[in-house]
Amino acid sequence: TAWVGSLSMGMVFFCSPIVSIFTDLFGCRKVAVVGAAVGLVGLLSSSFVSTIEPLYFTYGILFACGCSFAYQPSLVILGHYFKKRLGLVNGIVTAGSSLFTVSLPFLLRVLIDSVDLYNTLRVLCILMFVLFLAGFTYKPLIPNTKDKEGGKKGKFKLPPAKKICNFSVFKVLSYRIWAFGIPAALFGYFVPYVHLMNHVKDRFGDSVPEEVLLLCLGITSGVGRLIFGRVADYIPGAKKIYLQVASFFFIGLMSMMIPLCNVFGALVAVCLFMGLFDGCFICIMAPIAFELVGAQDVSQAIGFLLGLMSVPMTVGPPIAGLLRDKLGTYDVAFYLAGVPPLIGGAILCFIPWVHERQKLKERAKPVDGETTEKMLENESTLVSDTTGKPVKELDSGF
């Protein structure tokens, strides 16, 4: 049964590079609308199946792919409209997921108890239909590849493979460090979110309301997205990455502190801090991508990053589960889970320095070219002026 949810979450991120290509080719609006429609079909068809095998396709693949196609354009479109307040806007938009993280589980419990699972899925189709309608409001201001290739005639010619898969973003050294540093940090990042409830049952039994921990994570994550999204607007350029460094540092530290909490109140405090910095990490993802690669390439930059993130997200929690099965406790798993965020954060520290050096090199190139052209112009002028003059005058001029 667990594979249905795991497959769904994995497919959302695995599809991200493909989504970025379609977004570049056809624009945010069409990709978001089609994605919401596919997700609606997948969710609605899941409500009519009576065995678990079809759910692997209808919910685990079809619904997840639709969500992936609807999600990524919602991040890309923000950069078309906002520049100075991009961090705050991302914070507001991504805070919506925290709002539903807090409220939706209670609603789902009421719906399942009153109208059963199948009708609950049909009720959730209303949310997907709202997402479908919302996609029509996207109006991209930056031309996509189809518009560029079609030109005035409006005919669409398939662009070269280099433009379809824009691997040129990996030529940017600062982006390469970022794209591999974040997945390195995520090997332990999601372990607490997956195994925290089981750890609470092992440590405290059924005497404590473990749902409170999820509530704390959801609330403070939403608050963190709003606060740090606004703070990111005041931090210039690639130095925004230091916020992600801080978030990885605190999340790694909080993961290591979970086994040390012998009182439930201490565990609540740890979850509050963890949710706060989780919101920081998520809300500034898009602003950093815009800073590193620019608005034209940001779609595929985010897509490649999310695709790389899918590997540690899938691998990390099962490894922690194996450690628990072998050792009989989650303590070692949580201690080890805190190490990758610290290492990933240390790697990201180099990005602002590397990015500034890249900018200096790019500025130096046109300056050198202009200087060379001016020298050649001066030399040709000097030669033309002195060809008709006596040798003595030429010598005296020099």
Automatic annotation (TrEMBL):
The chain crosses the membrane at residues 6-26, 31-50, 56-79, 86-108, 120-138, 173-192, 212-229, 241-260, 266-290, 302-320, 332-354. It is found in: Membrane. One of its GO terms (cellular component) is basolateral plasma membrane. It comes from the Eukaryota. Residues 169-398 form the Major facilitator superfamily (MFS) profile domain. The keyword Transmembrane applies. InterPro entries: MFS (IPR011701), MFS_dom (IPR020846), MFS_trans_sf (IPR036259), Proton-linked_MCT (IPR050327). GO terms for molecular function: transmembrane transporter activity. It is a multi-pass membrane protein. Residues 378-387 have a biased composition (Polar residues). Keywords: Membrane, Transmembrane, Transmembrane helix. Its main location: membrane. Residues 364-398 are annotated as: Disordered. Residues 364-377 have a biased composition (Basic and acidic residues). Pfam families: MFS_1 (PF07690). PANTHER family: MONOCARBOXYLATE TRANSPORTER, MONOCARBOXYLATE TRANSPORTER 10. This is MOT10 protein. The lineage of its organism: Eukaryota, Metazoa, Chordata, Craniata, Vertebrata. The gene is Slc16a10.
